[in-house]
Amino acid sequence: MPTLNLFTNVPVDAVVASDILRDATKAVAKIIGKPESYVMILLNGQVPIAFGGTEEPAAYGELISIGGLGPSVNGNLSSTIAEILETKLSIDSSRFYIKFYDVQVFFCLVL
């Protein structure tokens, strides 16, 4: 299940949060190639963040997925999520980082 955790120092009202959750869900599902029903988005607003020594609007994200990630996918996801944050929260794309985790599936049999 792809999970995107987003943190921002910008206050996020309920209407904007709903728009971001919807848009990010669609983007992650489409770009990774997994059903929307598998995608989870968490949005945390008003988190104390300093970026480059200032507290101007900024954001940080972590995307965890079992497969589906790679250099071109990660670049596309990064720019798409940055665009959503810039449109909805006025966060400049140069003040947004995202970290990708491609998790491997391990099976364990316990007797």
Automatic annotation (TrEMBL):
Protein origin, superkingdom: Eukaryota
Protein name: L-dopachrome isomerase
Secreted among keywords: yes
Keyword tRNA processing assigned: no
GO CC annotation terms, alphabetical: extracellular space
EC nos: 5.3.2.1, 5.3.3.12
Record GO terms (molecular function): cytokine activity; dopachrome isomerase activity; phenylpyruvate tautomerase activity
InterPro entries: Macrophage_inhib_fac (IPR001398), Tautomerase/MIF_sf (IPR014347)
Keyword list, A-Z: Cytokine, Isomerase, Secreted
Reaction equation(s) it catalyzes: 3-phenylpyruvate = enol-phenylpyruvate; L-dopachrome = 5,6-dihydroxyindole-2-carboxylate
Residues in the signal sequence: none
Family to which this protein belongs: Belongs to the MIF family.
Gene3D superfamilies (alphabetical): Macrophage Migration Inhibitory Factor
Subcellular location: Secreted
Top enzyme category: isomerase
